[in-house]
Amino acid sequence: MQPHKIIVTAALTGAVTVPTQTPHLPWKVEDLAEDAARCAEAGAAIIHIHARNQQNGAPSSDMEVYGEILKAIKARTDAVICASTGGSVRMTPAERVRVVPTWKPELASCNMGSMNFSVHPIARRFQDQDYLFPWEKEWLEGSEDAIFPNTFRSIKHFLQEMEKAGTRPEFEIYDVGHLYNLAFMVREGYVEPPLWLQFVMGVLGGIQATLYDLMHLLDTANRLFGPENYRWSVIGAGYPHQFTMCTAAIMLGGHARVGLEDNIFLRRGVFARNHELVEKIVRIAAEFEREPATPAEVRAFLGLKGLENVGF
């Protein structure tokens, strides 16, 4: 893939953003498929998905719902679908990884370390009567005492399941130690370069969204793997981090993820739709003479098995 190309990932819904936060969060199958198609038209080559309960929008590990989402998106676009195995901090590792052997996606997230993962400050923005669904308040407040578990044993199991399914791992790096965890897995033979890294920056409990921290991540990755052995993208959690950190990635030759999973604002005080976030980062990239990669280019660049070889 030419260096002027940029891989744009659209993370549509996640498991952290609650419906009360924004009127535009998609969680029903048809809404996710529509958002995926519009994001692909706007320049996203990868669509990152989580499953949600179809009655109340709560995060779900229901494989039937997951399958409906995957099939609906595949019917609307040829974009690469990256299935989340992060699920949510309330799910067990066994629940989170099931999407890989069940549906055999081309790409799936693989979180590289246990961590505190909290969004409890968001709950301060709302009164009890503001919430659309009963589960949301406890979901936000309860994250203050939540640990996102990703032990070496579970990471090994996730990688083994991905290898059997022909699914390429996308490594979610929330902190510098996660790079060292990944280097250990490379040494142990559970994964081989080139590696596809997502630097997740700005989550409360992980590395924060600053240029200093991004450069530290890159310096560490260069030492551990060599720049020829990995490709990288940036996630900036929250506003304005989504745009500041993704712009830094564009300038430094990396790639970018946007979407309502990570940030709900297009600009200060203006709620975004997923495709608008894609359009904005594509406009920013154009100012640096970088243009969106196509799904075909991404498949070749990341060595993916192709849409015809998935299980949905």
Tell me what you see in this structure:
The chain has one domain: TIM Barrel, CATH 3.20.20. The longest helix is centred in the C-terminal third of the chain and has 15 residues, at 211-225. The protein is globular and about 55 Å long. Strand 2 (8-11), helix 1 (29-42) and strand 3 (46-49) form a beta-alpha-beta unit. It has 11 helices and 14 strands. It is an alpha/beta fold and 312 residues long.
List the helices and strands and how they pair.
Layout: E1 5-6, E2 8-11, H1 29-42, E3 46-49, H2 63-76, E4 80-83, H3 93-97, H4 99-103, E5 107-111, E6 115-116, H5 135-142, E7 147-148, H6 152-165, E8 168-173, H7 176-187, E9 195-201, H8 211-225, E10 230-236, H9 241-252, E11 255-258, E12 265-267, E13 270-271, H10 274-287, E14 291-292, H11 295-302
Parallel strand pairs: 1-14, 2-3, 2-11, 3-4, 4-5, 5-8, 8-9, 9-10, 10-11
Antiparallel strand pairs: 6-7, 12-13
Helix pairs in contact: 1-2, 1-10, 7-8
